[in-house]
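Data availability (excerpt). The following record was deposited with the supplementary files.
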Amino acid sequence: MTTRSQLLDERAIARALTRMASEIVERCGGTDGLILIGIQRRGVELAQRLAQLIGSAEHTTIPTGKLDITLYRDDLQAIGPRPVVGETRLPADLNGRTVVIVDDVLYTGRTIRAALDEFADFGRPRRILLCVLVDRGGRELPIQADIIGLSVTTGGQDRVDVFVREQDGRDGVELVRAG
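Predicted structure:
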């Protein structure tokens, strides 16, 4: 039997994103040359929210984009002969820019490795930072987040579900523990 427990509700996500937006600006030394790129699916909405928070606080517009890493996955053969590929849309030339990759959950690190591989096809950023709403541990690759909304320890059979109102009609983060 599985059990669900709420890790973050709508207000907690809003607070975490506000803090994360401030951390991005601090870590980047401002907003010059800053681009936020969300990983499909829920990372895109989180990147857009962070860009809006940063833009409001800094009185500027932060470019955002979206990245689909499907064709860069190291387990592409395992997901079947016809993978569903989403859109990759980057706002500008990445060369010399500071790119912040935004994702909902960091687990093994393989999604981020695929994102880094894909970026190599689009240019050479000056710097890349990783921003995640939830870091659940369990890394298989030497990848770590620079900015984290919430760290939680989970088991290999557990799951962290992130809900965003743009796709799911509500905001929340739940831990689903295998029974």
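Summary of structural features: Strands lie at 3-8, 34-39, 64-67, 98-106, 127-135, 147-151, 159-163, 172-177.
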